[in-house]
Structure of Acyl-CoA thioester hydrolase:
Amino acid sequence: MRASGVLAAEIDVTVPFFDVDSMDVVWHGHYVKYLEIARCALLDDLGHNYRRMKETGYVWPIIDLQLRYARAARFGQTLRVRAELVEWQNRLKIHYTLSDASSGERLTRASTIQVAVSLVDGEMQLVSPTVFTDDVDRRLAHRSQDRSAGSTP
């Protein structure tokens, strides 16, 4: 069973002409771009985007990517891409769902795993840096406060 994320971000993408093949179907490699857009929205929401990662002395390369295609996306279709934070203590694991924005029909599921690598010595970190986990904890606490106050984040 697929784990639910503790935080999520959603974006909409309308499939452009240059992402499709002669059959108006999205070329499989372009799905990775859609994941990246959603991942950036999630990281922005966490307050720990790629700029902040670099400023804190770490890069976070993707070491694993999995995609499962259920239905093809097509030219002009608006996709809803949801990114959910699943793990962050030892690695950054995000689950994704790509759905048709109108019908909600699921088209694709995916996941990525990223690990912190020190910019100083190029060493992979076995646990996530506290500067990252502190930002996640801060966002989770803020979300809890929002819920307690009756607002939706």
